[in-house]
Amino acid sequence: MHGLGTVPRPTATDRYARWAGLLVGLVAARLVGSNDGLGVGILYAIPVFGLCAVAGVLVGDSLTPPPRGTVRTAGLAPRRIRDYVPPRMTLLLLAEAAVLVVLLAVAAVAASPDDMGRAGRSLTVTCPDGSTASTSPWPGLFYGLPILAALAVSTTACVWSLTRIARRPGDEQTRRDRSLAIVAAWGLLISAPLLGAASTASGALMDIGCAGTVGRLANWALWPTALVALVTVPWCLFTVIAPKAGVRR
Question: Where in the sequence is the domain holding 160, given as residue range(s)?
């Protein structure tokens, strides 16, 4: 899209809508997380916060008037999502999402019921001397299913939001700015559960003294995974709050 009209700057309404989404997300996440059952509450609090952040961006986008001008020209090629999302951040987050799914799948296969019979919440290992050692929590299906369900819902919502932003009238930079905020919000919904799952699995393996070579190899993969996720969480949060600063950086 090319235009000779005036390109609007982000309005105060746009900024207020984004901040309102973040504040509502904090309150909603606090309420959801307070109903905690064995750590499950936080698994729902994270996507609630991210979706509220996405909603704030969409509200700001809806309340911002399209650019005005006397002469405008438009190309015939349809606007695509990939034309506006940040390529490097998107590739990193897609890789983290794949790692998260694989980690949860492997953890689900290795999981066992805990001492209360809750499926997928414990890890039980048979030691070389024939004894067994168990530890919990473990990111099996007890935690993995809520994470995957939240990931599916949030991914659908973010793709729909990106499609709407790409097709709505406006200037190119504003579309990129808002798409960046949406992608960063999606990144929170990936990196935070990945950090939790990787650190929980690593702690459980370290808690079992007879995990052996397999446990050590697994930890060598889990530690850098958790570290990358630990860096991605504040990066995405900062980008949601100030997407233009994220672009300049």
Answer: 2-248
